[in-house]
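Look at a sample.

——
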Amino acid sequence: MNNSPAGVIGVVGAGTMGEGIAQVALQSGYSVVLFDIQADVLQRAVSDIHKKINRLVDKGKLTREAADGAVARLAASQDIAHLAQAQLVIEAVPERLNIKRDIFRQLEQVCSKDTILATNTSSLSVTVIGAGCQYPGRVVGMHFFNPAPVMKLVEVVVGDDTTSEVVDAVVRLARSFGKHPIVCKDTPGFIVNRVARNFYGEALRIVGEGTADPADVDWLMENGAGFRMGPFALMDLIGIDVNLDVTKAVYHAYHEEPRFRPHALQARMVAAGRLGRKTGRGFYSYDTADAAATEVPAQLDRNACAEQATTQVGNVVVIGDTPLASSLLRRVAERAGKSLANAGVAYDGALADWDTVGIQWRADEVEAFLRRCRPDIVLVGVAGEEAYHRPLLQAVERAVGEDVLILTSVAGPSATEQAGWLRRGDRVRGFHVILGDNGFVKEAHPAFEWTVPFQAQTSDAEAEERWNRRTEALALSLGCVPRQVRDGAGGVVMRILAMLFNEAAEVMREGVATAEDIDTGMKLGTNYPRGPVEWMDDLGIPVVWNTLCALSREFGDDRYRPSPLLRQMVTAVRHGNREGGSVQWASLTK
C-alpha cells in the first residue's frame, strides 16, 4: 500500500476508538474516510475530531495550517461504498464476531483486492475474522490502545493467513502514525491483555483470601513495585465490568485455563452495580460530582520515614544468594558505615539441590561468619530448593543467640513454612522489598512488606509485639516504609509479579512475541514501570521460579504451575552458578 501522506485510510465505526484512530491518521497527513451507519454517531465523531484538533492548536502542539489541512482531509459517510478509494481500512466496531465478519464481507465487495483490511479487535481472533473473506491474506490485526491519539503502542496481530507483505506494510503505517508497533501471533489477548490479566486476577485473589485489603495491595504495588496505579484503583478507573468482561473472554478463549480464571469478588461487585468511578463506587468510594476518590489507598509517610530512618537496631547482617540479598548487603553496609565483608555473605546464585557438598560448604561458611560477627538481626534471601534453602536457614539459627531476629524473604516459601524448619520459629519474620539497584524505579523510601508466621502468632503476645517492633524499626533504618500483610508464599508484590512474569514466559515459549516486544508492549500499553522480561533478569529467574513453586505447593492450584521455559532457564542458571557464569533471558532466548 501507499504509506505516503497522500494515502487514504478508511475507518469503519465512529465510536471512541474509530474516532481516535481517524484523528491519528489525519494528524499524520493521511486523508480519512470515516464510515458509520448511524448518522448521529458519525456527526458527533466529526465534531469531536474538529474540536480536539483545534485544541491542539490552542496548546501549541499543532499549527493552524496543519490543523486546517487535517480537518479538510476528513470525509464522513454512511455509505460503505465510499471506502473503495482507501488503500487500508481499519475496522473499529463493537467486539462481536458476527458484526465484524459481516463488515469484512461488505468491504471485500467494495474495496480493491489489494486493499489491506485491518481489525482493531482487542479480544477476537484475527484468523477467524478473516476466515470468511475471499482474500484472507490481507486481513491483519491493528490493535490501538485507548485513547488512540495519546497511547503510543499498536499491536500488529498476524493471523494464520496474513501475508508477510501485509504485516510489513502495517508496521510501516503504524510508524508513520508516530506509533510503536509490536508484532505478535494471533492468540487470545495478544500480548498486553493476556499478560496483564494476572495484575488484576492475582490481586483479587489476595484480597479475596484476606491476605491484604485493596488499599494495601494498591499501596504496595505503587510504592513497592513502582506501578503508577495499583490494580484496584485501575479497575475502578477502567470499569470493573469492562475488566471482568475481558477476563472472561480470555478465560473462555483459552478453554478455561486456570491462569485466567475470573474471581467471584469481581463478579459480585458487577452484580451489585459497583462498577468503579463511573457509578461512584467500586473498590473505593467516589464523589459522583467530580469523580474524586473519597477513600484512597494510604500514601507514603515520607516525613515519618525520614525521622525514624536512623533508628538504632544493632548489628544487622545479610545472608543470601539473590539480587535482593546483594542489594540489601550494599544498603546495610552503607547505612552502618562498614565494609561489605562485614555486612554479610551474598553468593552469586543458589546451588542445585543435588550439590550436597556445595550446600554443606555454604552452610558451614554462613555459620562461621555469623558466630564471628555476632549480629542482632539477620536478613536472609535464598532462592533454592528446600534441600538447599533449609540447611542455610538452619545454619543461621545455630549460629545466633536466642534474642536475634531472623527476617527471611517470602519471595518463595511463606515465613510460616520457613519457620517450620527451625527450632525457634517465633522470632522469624517474613519480608519482601525491591530496592533501587535490583529492579525498583523509585529511589526514595520503598515499601517494605513484612509478615508474621503462624508460629509467632501462637506464642507469647508480649514477645510477638517486641519482635514486630524490631522488624518495623529495621525497615525504617534501611530507609524503607514498613507495611504488614498476612503471611503467605510470595507475599503481595512478588506474588503478583511472579504471575505476570510467568505469563510473559509462556508468551515467549509459544512463539507469540519476542522478549523485546513483550517488554515494549507492557511499558507502552499499560504503563508498567519495567518490562516483565528485563525485570525478571534484575530480580532473578530462580526467585520467580521459587515463588511460583511455593504458591503451587501452598494452594494446590494449577494456575500457579511454572512455565516449562522457566524450568529450563532455572536449570541453566543454576548450572551457570556452579560453573561461575551468569545466565539471563537475553542469552537463552536468542
Notes: The radius of gyration is 27 Å. Residues 39-58 form the longest helix (20 residues). The chain has four domains: 8-185, 192-293, 302-484, 493-588.
